[in-house]
Specification:
Helix 1 crosses helix 7, helix 5 packs parallel to helix 6 and helix 7 packs antiparallel against helix 8. The longest helix is centred in the C-terminal third of the chain and has 30 residues. This protein is about 30% helix and about 25% strand. It is elongated, with a radius of gyration of 22 Å. It has two domains: about 200 residues, FAD/NAD(P)-binding domain, CATH 3.50.50; about 120 residues, FAD/NAD(P)-binding domain, CATH 3.50.50.60. Strands 1, 2, 5, 6, 7, 8 and 19 form a seven-stranded mixed beta sheet that branches. Strands 10-17-11-12-13 form a five-stranded parallel beta sheet, covered by helices on one side. The mean pLDDT is about 95. By secondary structure, the chain is of the alpha/beta class. It has eight helices and 19 strands. It binds flavin-adenine dinucleotide (FAD). One of its GO terms (molecular function) is thioredoxin-disulfide reductase (NADPH) activity. InterPro entries: FAD/NAD-bd_sf (IPR036188), FAD/NAD-binding_dom (IPR023753), Ferredoxin-NADP_redctase_2 (IPR050097), Pyr_nucl-diS_OxRdtase_2_AS (IPR008255), Thioredox_Rdtase (IPR005982). Belongs to the class-II pyridine nucleotide-disulfide oxidoreductase family. Pfam families: Pyr_redox_2. This is Thioredoxin reductase.
Length: about 325
């Protein structure tokens, strides 16, 4: 029986592992097979993670996270979790080929996935002009003409934010009106650096080493044209990775796992959640790492309460034992 099973190897999972391991809880971290390391494995330079004044490449940062977690005794397993039973006092976690794990607590840190356009060149040019995060990458596009795809609030927010850096921001939308709230629309319409490209969808991204343009198709007459740009921000939504816990953990209206206040506590005792999977707004490496810390501290606190409750139970103090677990 493990004290702590951590699912996910992004900044949230590894930070939870560092704290849990240093607390002597000997965590096991199920890292995923092909996607180990999380979202930062798909990017190049990270300039906003504190402690790296010259920046660091995403995969190098995640290698350091792993090294630090392993240094204190975390067991990292490169396998995917396929099924979970989180309801009882003992949690069961099934994996693709490493067998089943039983744990007293589970920290769920599976992140979230930005929706993609589904174009062949999107992955090839990811981190080379194609981005899903204006806060992360806007700084790299100083003085450039760039494009944002999408018509919702987040697309308007990204486009408006990007005008701080870019000389011009095209907002490409497949219809002739936006889904975004009126206040966000008004702000974007009033911004002289933003130009709307209506009734258009991106059907191609061009560029060898870096993005140099888009192929746009008119959604009314089907005609195609080329738009020269130096960067593309895809803002068409984000899906928290929660499918494994549907029916067990409560979700928010935004689709993230519901946690109690600023804690990582879910609706099930002994189950904690951290990182982008609980965060509909900030979704940054440093906020995910902070959230991983919270989850490890909550798990540690819960395990101590569980140990104390077991002692009380042995002494026949059942009601006190139950109250202790309920408050953990
Ligand atoms: C292209 C790009 C660039 C970015 N640049 C920056 C930046 O410059 N600065 C910044 O602060 N943030 C940046 N971000 C955002 C940042 O990557 C995320 O906020 C952060 O990675 C979230 O951490 P997380 O641990 O919650 O989730 P993730 O990093 O998404 O990690 C989730 C982990 O869970 C694993 N997992 C999922 N399902 C399973 C399963 N069934 N079994 C086992 N494991 C599973 C995944 O494989 C992954 O390892 C960027 C994001 C993207 C997409």
């Amino acid at each position: 029986m493990r004290n702590v099973i951590i699912i996910g190897s992004g900044p949230a999972g590894y930070t939870a592992a560092i704290y849990a391991a240093r607390a002597g809880l000997e965590p096991v971290l199920l890292a995923s097979s092909v996607e180990a390391g999380g979202e930062l494995m798909n990017t190049t330079e990270i300039e906003n993670f504190p402690g790296f004044p010259d920046g660091i490449m995403g995969p190098d940062l995640m290698a350091k996270f792993q090294e630090q977690a392993e240094r204190f005794g975390t067991e990292v397993i490169l396998d995917d979790v396929t099924e979970l039973d989180l309801r009882g006092e003992t949690k069961t976690v099934k994996t693709g080929y490493s067998g089943d794990f039983e744990g007293r607590t589970v920290i769920f840190a599976t992140g979230s996935a930005y929706r993609k356009l589904g174009l062949g060149d999107e992955d090839r040019l990811s981190g080379r002009g194609v981005s899903w995060c204006a806060t992360c990458d806007g700084f790299f596009f100083k003085g450039k003409e760039i494009a944002v795809v999408g018509g919702g609030d987040s697309a308007m927010e990204e486009a408006t934010f990007l005008t701080r850096f870019a000389s011009k921001v095209y907002v490409i939308h497949r219809r002739d009106s936006l889904k975004a709230s009126k206040i966000m629309q008004d702000r974007a319409f009033a911004n002289e650096k933003i130009e709307f490209v209506w009734n258009s969808e991106v059907v191609g991204i061009t560029g060898e080493g870096a993005v140099d343009g888009l192929t746009l198709r008119d959604t009314i007459d089907g005609s195609e044209r080329h738009l020269a740009i130096g960067g593309l921000f895809v803002a068409i939504g984000n899906d928290p990775r929660t499918h494994l816990v549907h029916g067990q953990l409560d979700l928010t209206d935004e689709g993230t796992i519901a946690v109690e206040g600023r804690s990582s506590r879910t609706n099930l005792p002994g189950v904690f959640a951290a990182g982008d999977v609980i965060d509909p707004h900030y979704r940054q490496a440093i906020t995910a790492a902070g959230s991983g810390t919270v989850a490890a501290l909550d798990a540690e606190h819960y395990l101590s309460a569980l140990d104390d409750a077991e002692k009380l139970d042995e002494e026949g103090e059942t009601a006190e034992a139950e109250a202790l677990i309920a408050s953990a």
